[in-house]
Design goal:
By secondary structure, the chain is of the alpha/beta class. Helices cover 51% and strands 14% of the residues.
Length: 362
């Protein structure tokens, strides 16, 4: 065969075949797996559920070209080490509650929950329409990360106790687990506050290392089994009225992704927030009923205890105001909260009050 004729045929007549041959390896090379470290043991309701949902959404929306390998605490790093692991590049993404990392920056508390802060809806309002996401990323840039809200547990319970809380003085000396700025508030009331990873809480409560703890709410708490070792459950808390979860991506890794992949991360996170909140709210009522059937006594803190929570919360929040970014975040958040609350109080809150009054008549 004429060599020049063969080359011409291969280059022109064989173009389609060549393209087909080359396309598969190039497509394969475009696949990427990211390592995600989480703060949640596998199977934990609401929290690990959110991480798993996020992973699945990324995989499905990318048609398998972008996948996430999820690692629970201890499989690569510990639960409270995930922030540093992603910041340094040891892992690509973390899924956690950002108030675990207020030692890195106190402003991170706002992207989970702060004492007397926003409900789940109010947090989302601020994050998506009040500048919250931009402020989250300002902190992220300090630590080489791109941040996204990716889950919300809704209003969290006041916690599990072995004895009733009749006054603020009952917190004095109490060994209690509560992370974030809420934990600092209880510290002001004399509690011995500890921040223990979720996977260690059952053992700490059952052994007496803790006198009480807060976790999430009935659905998640029931699966964790706390009703087996404590029977007093305060159903409303001051500390987390609508707790956001975060998926944070190493910034160098995020910048290497295609624009489409970046959007997949963003919208998977948004879907996770919406779905996670619905999961919690859909399951809490039935879970609470089951807890009560197992002998759990549900209670509310007295008004004077709420007043003590409020006074101590103001002290804690004011202590961080010398940090300019914290002050900016607080100002932005509170302005959004005020705007949201003025309408919600006149609409949703009033409607619920009237619904209860009308439907419960007779």
């Amino acid at each position: 065969m004429d060599r020049r004729s063969f080359l011409k045929t291969s280059a022109l007549g064989g173009t389609a075949a060549a393209a087909t041959t080359l396309a598969a390896p190039l497509y394969a090379q475009g696949k990427r797996t990211l390592t995600m470290v989480t703060a949640w043991p596998r199977g934990f309701a609401v929290l690990d559920d959110a991480a798993t949902y996020f992973n699945n959404m990324v995989d499905e929306m990318s048609d398998g070209t972008l996948t996430i390998e999820k690692k629970a605490p201890g499989e690569l790093v510990g639960a409270f080490e995930v922030f540093d692991a992603v910041s340094s590049g040891q892992a690509d993404i973390y899924h956690a509650a950002d108030y675990y990392f207020i030692g890195q920056h106190p402003g991170l508390a706002y992207f989970t929950a702060v004492p007397f802060g926003g409900t789940a809806q109010e947090l989302t309002n601020w994050y998506l329409h009040g500048g919250g996401h931009e402020l989250h990323n300002q902190i992220g840039e300090i630590f080489n990360m791109k941040m996204f809200l990716a889950g919300n547990s809704g209003s969290q319970s006041g916690g599990w106790f072995r004895k009733e809380i009749n006054s603020a003085a009952d917190f004095n000396g109490l060994k209690f687990r509560m992370p974030g700025l809420g934990g600092k508030v209880l510290g002001k009331l004399g509690a011995s506050v500890q921040n223990i990873p979720g996977g260690e809480l059952y053992q700490a409560l059952s052994s007496g290392a803790l006198d009480g703890l807060e976790w999430v709410g009935p659905f998640a708490d029931e699966r964790a089994g706390f009703q087996e070792v404590a029977k007093i459950y305060y159903t409303a808390g001051f500390h987390e009225p609508g707790s956001g979860l975060t998926a944070s991506v190493n910034l160098d890794v995020f910048n290497e992704l295609t624009p489409a992949q970046q959007k997949i991360i963003e919208y998977s996170a948004m879907a996770t927030t919406h779905t996670g909140l619905a999961e919690t709210l859909a399951n809490n009522g039935a879970a609470l009923a089951r807890l009560q059937q197992q002998g759990v006594k549900t209670m509310q803190f007295p008004d004077d205890v709420w007043d003590a929570f409020g006074a101590a919360s103001k002290e804690v929040m004011d202590e961080n105001m010398d940090d300019t970014l914290f002050a900016d975040i607080r100002g932005s958040f509170e302005a959004s909260l005020k705007s949201s609350a003025e309408w919600l109080q006149k609409s949703d809150a009033f409607y619920v009050e009237q619904r209860q009054r009308v439907l419960n008549q007779g």
